[in-house]
Amino acid sequence: MIFRLLLLFYVFPIFLQECIIVDKPFECDDMIQILEYHNDLRSKVAQGRTKLFEAKDMWALKWDDALAVMAQDWANKCTLKPNTGRPNDCGENIAWLSLTEVQPIDVEAIIEMWYDEINKFDPEIKGIQGGTEHFTQLIWGETQFIGCGSTIFQDKEDSKVYQALVVCNYKPAGNFVNKRLYELLDKNHIDEETGEPVRCEKGIPSSRHPGLCAHDIGHALGTYVPCSRYGDNVQPTAYFWIALLLCGYINVFF
């Protein structure tokens, strides 16, 4: 298998589990899919390709291991209740699906379910609205990081039914009362070099996800991979620096 588990060595003692868990946490390709789909939807909103207004300074999300560990810990408790013990600066989305057999979780379907709450959202009303909190956290402009966990467990009342649970944590948190989801794009504030409205006074304009603001150049160009440090996705830039160091070593000693 090309990708390794992010939480391969995550320990959760069986005597602490509140349910019978039958499947493992997200793998690297799941993390990439979660990030890409979140950022695709955020990009769609930021560019004004929905009924909402165009955005300024909406971040392209990056993966955060600490958020993922916290999400996985909560997913292992097999509850739809929110994690009230999480830090105040951390937001949360939870989803639950019933299955007749153990199978890979369709993470895009989960994220789409959260996003579809846009249909109930009124853009003329400032701040969060009832029944749309999953959507508003998903596209909250100031949120920069995400980490998710999942589990599939047997139903307590019917062992032939399985429940798939997905928990995503976000930082900084969104969904503040009487606060806009994101800054609105000022089309009169023009960048002299590009002739386009200034979208990113924070971060770097993303070419990977137009309309969003990336954390750094690699993130902007799409070379960022959340689990590359686990050894299976070494980026070309890493090979370049390794070659450069080897050349320097040869020149010095030979």
Question: Brief description of this entry?
Answer:
Helix content is 27%, strand content 15%.
Outline the structure in words.
Residues 1-17 form the signal peptide. It is a single chain. The chain is α+β, with helices and mostly antiparallel strands and 254 residues long. The chain has one domain: Pathogenesis-related Protein p14a (3-Layer(aba) Sandwich), CATH 3.40.33.10. It has helices at 28-46, 65-75, 107-115, 133-138, 217-221, 236-253, and strands spanning 55-56, 62-63, 91-99, 145-154, 162-171, 183-184, 204-205, 213-214. It has a four-stranded mixed β-sheet. A hairpin with a 7-residue loop joins strand 4 (145-154) and strand 5 (162-171). Helix 1 (28-46) packs parallel to helix 3 (107-115). The protein is globular and about 65 Å long.
List keywords for this structure.
V5_allergen-like, alpha+beta, single chain, globular, 6 helices, four-stranded mixed sheet, 8 strands, 27% helix, 254 residues, Pathogenesis-related Protein p14a
Oligomeric assembly? single chain
Total number of helical segments? 6
User: What share of residues is helical?
Assistant: 25-40%
Overall number of domains: 1
Tell me what the CATH architecture is. Answer: 3-Layer(aba) Sandwich
What is the structural class? alpha+beta
Number of strands: 8
Tell me the name of the CATH homologous superfamily. CAP
Major sheet: arrangement of strands:
2-4-5-3
The major β-sheet equals: 4 strands, mixed
Global geometry: globular
**Beta fraction:** 15-25%
Distance from N terminus to C terminus (CA atoms, Å) equals 39 Å
Radius of gyration: 21 Å
Residue runs with pLDDT of under 50 for 5 or more positions: 1-16, 229-254
Keywords: Signal
Organism: Nezara viridula
InterPro entries: Allrgn_V5/Tpx1_CS (IPR018244), CAP_dom (IPR014044), CAP_sf (IPR035940), CRISP-related (IPR001283), V5_allergen-like (IPR002413)
GO cellular component, one term: extracellular region
